[in-house]
Amino acid sequence: MLKKYRQSFATSELGRLHSLFPFSELARQMHLKSSPFGRKSYFSPEGKIALMVLKSYTNFSDAQLIEHLNGNIHYQLFCGVQIDPLHPLTNPKIVSAIRQELADRLDVESLQLILAEHWTPYLENLHVCMTDATCYESHLRFPTDTKLLWEGIVWLHRHLCKHCQTLHIQRPRNKYLDVRRAYLAYSKLRKRKKSQTRMITRRLLQLLEKLLDQLELLHSSYRNRLTLSSDYQRRFSVIQTVLEQGKNLFAGKKVSNRIVSIDRHYLRPIIRGKETKSVEFGAKVNNIQIDGISFIEHISFKAFNEGVRLKDCIHLQQQLTGVRVKALAADSIYANNANRKFCTKYHISTSFKRKGRAAKDEPLRKILRSELSRERATRLEGSFGTQKQHYSLARIKARNRKTEVLWIFFGIHTANAVCMIEKVEKKKRKAA
Length: 432
Fold this sequence. Notes:
Layout: H1 2-11, H2 13-19, H3 23-29, H4 45-58, H5 62-71, H6 73-79, H7 93-104, H8 108-119, E1 128-137, H9 145-167, H10 176-187, H11 194-221, H12 230-250, E2 269-271, E3 279-290, E4 293-300, H13 310-321, E5 327-329, H14 337-345, E6 349-350, H15 362-390, H16 401-431
Parallel strand pairs: 1-5, 5-6
Antiparallel strand pairs: 1-3, 2-3, 3-4
């Protein structure tokens, strides 16, 4: 029966997907070990990478992934494990532990070189580069000034009570209970006047400053009796920055690098200007696409102008494929004078709208521009929607910066591998 399962796995989509990833090379590049913490891991180094691919492919939560892994033999073959039905895996945190281990060793550039080397023989039109940027949103409630201030207050008050209990001292007085009642009444309002918002914001700022002062006094007075972890100190510092930014915003001043989440302090608002949402919170990624296969050119949690990265996109594609770029498809933000001069110098045809006098072969150039624009609009922008809807990139639930980058990396390249299945089959049919 197991032999039949192995045969059916090889012909299934999951088996073909497994054959498209050079797991051994990826594991060697990441320097993964079978015993990372001094004890033997249930998954091999290749199996850990396969588990992350499987999570992106299935779009399951960690708990759902472990539950299905226990009962699905094809999933076990994909990850290279055999789970005893009488002793199944019960701890879903094993997925997050593996994710954290891989995130600490992730090098996007070197891993993409390995994948490109493995996939390039099946790709066509290697001389055509398409590029665009998108935002992969984080799983985050929409931030407002009052929510952010209240979250900081709740965290500070909880730790103030905990410290006083540990030190066996009386808790210092503050207006926490009064402000909590006022904030609860404010949050229940369906419509809020501007005066009501300013009044509750002022009270929250005053209480937050009071709590910070009281905790700082405890830290300095009982330095030897309190053990403050690095996470505690980092979050305390983030709340101090939130207070400073909140005061500036309340005074009508502009604030740069605005914090939108105390838990994930690295996130910044990214203004996209879309019809459905003007602001997004997550990683902004500039991608290139080669024959429908996407690669990460630049990723940042801060807003950046992708228009200045066109030269880097061309250099990355030439590095991945070893073929000189002759045609380029990008939207209007990339069409600045510096990029136009660069493309003219190296004889790269573009989808940019023409400037100046028409050339002798203008009708042919117009057809080429139209074709490049159509391909970019359908294939590249369509791939963003596919990744977000089907490969766990709609609302990323990672808890820190490194794991969020890892989540995006595996989501993009799992979607690529599914596209590669058809390309490999097509190449085999031609060879036959």
